[in-house]
């Protein structure tokens, strides 16, 4: 009998009262939770703002086949509580030698490259982000701020942590221009379709594997 699949959903929203309450990020988080439960995939959850135990978070990462970070883009990155979370959880995974043992290089084999020493191969990581920025700000050299860079370029500091430990980085989902658009509900409708396609899952079926 095949081992049941698990997904870890991480909500990194940081509440600023009377300014940003996290309603939209919570909606995407709930959409992902509902989708994976409908596919009979067990959902593990962490809301960073509510507190966490680094050792328990390491265990969740070890159990989960998929990790999805839900985040608002605050000043072109995740809220600062996510960096604190990463430092504490990934250092715990390093010290326990469960995430990785070293950086991949060895004296015996000079062909082994930096960033290939992770122990978590076969796992997948994805970001779902909400933005004030419009989609056209990216992948366009004529745009003065990003100068042709992509969302993936901007998030390299986040995805590199997971790639360093062996994860495959999956195509993210972005909800752009949230303060100016009136059709954000369409993104919430399309998000489960994105998850289905990216992870090659059949709705209401656990027969297909994730690889």
UniProtKB/TrEMBL annotation:
It comes from the Bacteria. The keyword Flavoprotein applies. Residues 5-189 form the Flavodoxin-like fold domain. The keyword rRNA processing does not apply. Keywords: FAD, Flavoprotein. SUPFAM superfamilies: Flavoproteins. Its cofactor is FAD. Belongs to the oxidoreductase MdaB family. This is Modulator of drug activity B. The lineage of its organism: Bacteria, Pseudomonadati, Bacteroidota, Chitinophagia, Chitinophagales.
């Amino acid at each position: 009998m095949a081992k049941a699949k698990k997904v870890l959903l991480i909500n990194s929203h940081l509440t600023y009262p009377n300014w940003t309450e996290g309603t939209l990020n919570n909606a995407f988080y709930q959409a992902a939770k509902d989708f994976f439960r409908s596919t009979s995939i067990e959902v593990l959850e962490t809301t960073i703002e509510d507190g966490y135990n680094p050792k328990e978070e390491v265990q969740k990462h070890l159990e989960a086949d998929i990790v999805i970070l839900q985040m608002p883009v605050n000043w072109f990155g995740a809220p600062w509580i996510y960096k604190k979370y990463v430092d504490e959880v990934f250092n715990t995974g390093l010290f326990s030698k469960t995430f990785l043992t070293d950086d991949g290089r060895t004296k015996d084999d000079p062909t082994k490259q930096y960033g290939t020493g992770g122990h978590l191969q076969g796992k997948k990581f994805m970001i779902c982000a909400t933005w004030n920025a419009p989609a056209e700000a990216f992948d366009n050299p004529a745009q003065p701020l990003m100068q042709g860079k992509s969302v993936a370029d901007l998030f390299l500091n986040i995805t590199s942590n997971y790639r360093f430990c062996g994860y495959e980085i999956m195509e993210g989902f972005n909800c752009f221009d949230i303060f100016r658009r009136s059709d954000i509900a369409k993104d919430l409708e399309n998000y489960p379709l994105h998850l289905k396609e990216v992870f090659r899952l059949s709705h209401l079926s656990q027969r297909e594997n994730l690889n």
